[in-house]
Specification:
Blueprint lengths: L5 E4 L3 H12 L4 E4 L3 H9 L7 E4 L2 H6 L6 E4 L5 H10 L8 E4 L5 H12 L4 E8 L1 H7 L2 E6 L4 H11 L14 E2 L2 H29 L5 H11 L7 H11 L21 H12 L4 H13 L2 H10 L11 H34 L5 H7 L10 H11 L10 H23 L5 H13 L6 H12 L33
Parallel strand pairs: 1-2, 1-4, 2-3, 4-5, 5-6, 7-8
Antiparallel strand pairs: 6-7
Helix pairs in contact: 1-6, 5-8, 8-11, 8-12, 8-14, 9-10, 11-12, 12-18, 14-17, 14-18, 15-16
């Protein structure tokens, strides 16, 4: 019997569609699920007459594979991944490859790579983005892990990955150990930011401009022909056009509580660990938490006086202001995401190709947009660019958007409309371009109550001072000064 090119365990939505994608590209695949009925249903349904072998035994799956054997897991992150790895280890031989294509946390991938390499096996942590449609037709794939594994999985991964108009393939090696899953995590954090920014634009149009779903659908469809052209803007227009059975907009019937799977939270926590101000993405995560407090919000809405809407401006001009504010905020979101990647690359000794990462995201994934071409150009022009805002194109662009950005945020504040991510983006921009922040007073306060010391502007950096502010303290200072 002909041996399979790869085995995949986990026939949920993503796994099933990846198997079909691989088979459609001419690869023979062994599909595995714990329950035989799941396998049978798949083989007799969508997989019928395709080069796909089914099995409910990991041992049988491994025996069906060409050497070096490649086993891909599309299962729930966390303990299930470790459990399957332990089941696979005794079935595999030196040089065989285990691939985790789920949304695993990158520290787990770092640990698993080291563990499996110690046993003579290779490990790949591959971030896969694009949802059900992407998995079937071509996702963005961000592989990292054991470098020696890449030549063996490259052909399959690049065959099934998304392709863009210029022939670019949305899959390339990202880096060692956890780099692939880390970059996928940042992708998801940026996705949180993009989604939140779009909902804030929707909130303004709905509540301040009193626009109908049909009117907003037309706006988002028009925006998708501008610099905002992207998958998320496109599907927003599609969503606003869908009607419920009674003819009313379906979106109006959906409860305003948002779910999440944790990757946005991981991104925010990592930014705290790295000391990177990921303010816009962080607010996007917190807003999902706030949305979940539905019962409390209903009570609060009846407890506090409602802020009256008093917008008297030009409607069309304000819609354009919202578009510009959304674009400016989006630039900040990506700037923060890239700053986090740069900081973590230093921490983990990853050699990340920042322009290349933008290429991986141009097709297949949830944040795909024309905007990513500009990021690629920025890092091509300066591979050591410290912050996206310092690139000449983005500097000029964001300066042209700032007046509208301020109008939108101030209008929202005056009308009691929450714009947490847009305003966080503006505050980050203003803070980033401010030469002298009030942290001098902050540091004086820390030295006053905790003897944490401070640096002086008239002395060299790295020289620390402590003042006996009250005359009652001593000369002993703390050793916990940190920037």
């Amino acid at each position: 019997m002909k041996k399979s090119d790869i085995g995949l365990t986990g026939l949920a939505v993503m796994g099933e569609n990846l198997v079909l994608n691989m088979a459609s590209k001419g690869f023979q695949v062994t599909a595995h699920a714990r329950r035989q009925e799941v396998v049978d249903k798949f083989l007799n349904g969508r997989a019928k007459d395709l080069p796909i072998i089914g099995t409910s035994s990991l041992e049988e799956m491994v025996k069906s594979l060409k050497k070096p054997r490649k086993v891909m897991m599309m299962i729930k992150a966390g303990k299930p991944v470790d459990d399957v790895i332990e089941q696979l280890i005794p079935l595999l031989e030196e040089g065989d490859i285990i691939i985790d294509g789920g949304n695993s946390h990158y520290p787990d991938t770092i640990r698993r790579t080291k563990y499996l390499e110690s046993k003579g096996l290779l490990f790949v942590g591959a971030g896969v983005s694009g949802g059900e449609e992407g998995a079937l037709l071509g996702p963005s794939i961000m592989p990292g892990g054991s470098v020696a594994a890449w030549p063996h999985v490259k052909e399959i991964f690049q065959a099934i990955a998304a392709k863009v108009e210029d022939g670019g393939i949305c899959c390339d090696w990202v880096g060692s150990d956890g780099a692939g899953h880390f970059v996928k995590m940042v992708h998801n954090g940026i996705e949180y930011g993009d989604i939140q920014l779009i909902t804030e634009a929707y909130h303004l149009m709905r509540n301040v401009l009193k626009m109908s779903a049909d009117e907003m659908q037309e706006v988002f469809a028009k925006w998708n022909k501008t610099e905002l052209n992207s998958y998320l803007i496109e599907i927003t227009a599609d969503i606003l056009a869908v009607k419920d059975e009674d003819g009313s907009p379906l979106v109006d019937k959906i409860l305003d509580t948002a779910g999440q799977k944790g990757t946005g939270k991981w991104t925010a926590v990592t930014s705290l660990d790295e000391g990177v101000p990921l303010t816009l993405i962080g607010e996007s995560v917190y807003q999902r938490f706030l949305s979940a407090l539905k019962d409390e919000r209903v009570v609060a809405s009846k407890t506090f006086k409602e802020t009256p809407i008093t917008f008297n401006g030009n409607k069309e001009e304000f819609i354009e202001d919202i578009r510009k504010a959304l674009y400016a905020s989006k630039i900040v979101s990506y700037a923060q995401g890239y700053a986090l990647m740069q900081a973590s690359a230093n921490t983990y000794n990853w050699d990340l190709n920042y322009g290349g990462i933008a290429l991986l995201w141009r097709g297949g994934c949830i944040i795909r947009s024309v905007f990513l071409d500009d990021i690629k150009k920025a890092y091509d022009n300066n591979p050591k660019l410290k912050n996206l805002l310092l690139d000449p194109f983005f500097k000029e662009t964001i300066e042209s958007l700032t007046d509208s950005w301020r109008k939108v945020v101030s209008t929202a504040v005056l009308n009691g409309i929450p714009l947490p991510s847009m305003s966080a983006g503006l505050n980050y921009f203003d803070g980033y371009k401010t030469e002298k922040l009030p942290a001098n007073l902050l540091q004086a306060q820390r030295d006053y109550f905790g003897a944490h010391t401070y640096e002086r502007i008239d002395k060299p950096r790295g020289e620390f001072f402590h003042t006996n502010w009250t005359g009652r303290g001593g000369k002993t200072s703390s050793t916990t000064y940190n920037v």
